[in-house]
Amino acid sequence: MIHGEIHQNVRQYINGRWETSATTGVSVNPSDTSEVVAEYARADRRQADIAIRAATEAFAHWSHSTPQRRADVLDRIGAELLARKDDLGLLLAREEGKTLPEAVAEVARAGQVFKFFAGEAIRGGAGSGGGENLASVRAGVQIDVTREPVGVVGVITPWNSPFVIPAWKIAPALAHGNSVVFKPAELVPACGWALAEIISRAALPAGTFNLLMGSGREVGQALVDSPLVDALSFTGSAANGERVLQAVGLRRAKVQLETGGKNALVVLADADLDRAVDCAVQGAYFSAGQRCTASSRLIVESAVHDAFVAKLRQRLKALTIGHALERGVDIGPVADEERLAQNLAWVGIARNEGAEHVWGGEALERATTGHYMSPALFLAKPAHRIAREEIFGPLACVLRADDYDEALALCNDTPFGLCAGICTNSLKHAMHFRRHAVVGMTMVNLPTAGVDFHVPFGGRKGSGYGPREQGRHAAEFYTTVKTGYMLA
To answer: How distant is the alpha carbon of residue 332 from its chain centre?
Structure first.
């Protein structure tokens, strides 16, 4: 066990108090499965209902708090995250498996998100004076268009980014005057608890923020079903997102979904191949490919196809896969035993369908027992499942395109639409791609995985539903618009 870390006992945070539960679970270090990272309380439906009612009662007070008070709270949270990015990054690396530099960077970004929304609480949050005063078409009538908080917001987040994804949901919810019930993924309870513990000391009224750790089938379903939850923001699989949409939409609450992607990186013949390979490696394989923005489809123009594949293979051979806390490691383990088995199964599927194996895809042994595998690369056809379905692991495929037009068509030939990138020195093609790629985000000569915290994040088609996350556009989900008329 590296550094001799001890495990933590973590509890629910409900109505301003730390609570135990009838049952418990454990999270383990995917780099060393002999190490227990946390023992955590597992909430049941009763505790979920208590937390939702607490959030409902707290909303009346928090929704009428001043913009300055909300800004101060969020700034305090952001400052502590930034000050503690190293120790919290260590926790993240131990529990989720990101390499330590990636983990520290994620915590820092979470702090920046809270800092940004501290400013938003002043600049344009509900009740901050960010509305409009308009002239009426009728004489003597004054019109005000204002934003108000939605109410109780349920937040359900995945395991792959356990600090920053909760941050970009919780921070705007609080900034705009909503109360929050937060359910992190069961793979990363200690990270969810660590964030909640910081929030618990930020002078929020009791019940304004609540933490529930437990199963999606019980706790998550309680948030989906409760008529007291006015809005629900969910990041996770497409299948679960569809169930959330149907259930929440049926009761006419607001719903926001981010449900992954099958993102493409297009490499044209005029591209700088070394830069293109770097974009491919960072986008497809870093964080063990466990990012919704990962570029698992590499669409390469025929003239440079073979040279690109050769260079990429050499880069993959040189990567170091190992314990997330070891220096010099490029890729840590995948998140758990189930994900490793799924990834290895995908390697078998690719082989069986006739995709040409280029490199990797094997389980690896290291000094500690963990969920290690070598990054996998295949040459595929558009009809192959590895080119169609989201895998969420360190596996990518190369698709050959005769020219730019075919590359763009292949890029858009997917039920997903989160992001897409292109590597080219042609301004004409870069500008055309940005306009015609049917996605929510485009990157030119950059990895697809890597986005800023102050601009909109989200996709189209099967990758998302509802208003965008992050940046000023977050107000579209976390507030509701009211139009007021008054005789002057």
So the answer is: 18
